[in-house]
Design brief:
The chain is mainly beta. Strands 1, 2, 3, 4, 5, 6, 7, 8, 9, 10, 11, 12 and 13 form a 13-stranded mixed beta sheet that branches. Strand 8 and strand 9 form a beta hairpin. The protein is globular and about 55 Å long.
Length: 269
Amino acid sequence: MNPDIRKPVSFAARSISALALSVALGLGISTTASADELDAKRLVKTMSEFLAAQQALSFSYDATLEVVTPEDQILALASSGKVELKRPDKLRATRAGGFADVDMSFDGKKLTILGKNLNIYTQVEIPGSIDHLVDVMRDKYDRPLPAADLLLSNSYDALMEGVEDIKDLGSGVIGGVECDSLAFRAKDVDWQIWIAHGDKPYPCRYVITSKRVPNGPSYSIQFSNWKSGKAVAASGFEFKNTSKATAVKLEDLKGAGDLPEHFTKGESK
């Protein structure tokens, strides 16, 4: 099997579910600049500023990554996890799926990736902020962090880079929470975000769809259990090898990637 996965666009991974295309011809949404576009930008900026203002954050997530095989079959890979961060330079993230059980910890100097299913780990020196970590993991190692776009200290600039079209779709409900539903188009991706109403405008769902790969595979992430400030459970960010895992080089860290080991990544068309 040689599935092709959508590639990140300038700042992060982006990914869809194909069903809603059936109503596309009947939406009747204007594509010209309007007050709705300005309001959509304002909502994203408010969300970005709110997240950046939280010195401590944690959330749970469920993610679906779609890949396309050479036979044009779309396969969905599901995973769940948790993320905890303390600005400017502490982060912990977990991801569990059918083929990987990963624990990542960053203490401001060193990133540790533990493959719990094989009990092996690797460490990489990446001194700096969470923003720097996001960039290095995406650009140098092709291992984007969960919800990386939204973890940046100024996620608004990253999200809006290259945006050519904006639609405010009104309200939606995600996990019982009423949200503003917003859709954006750029050259290589479409993306949609649902932002909670009220004084805590957390993102509730984020969906990125590739336009560089046939059949438009997507990456979607749904959030829950957002906490901030003192509500974030205190935990250490330094790696402690309590399971006596074996240290390996990053290139030898098996069973910790976004794709199963028997998948081979192809090229975008």
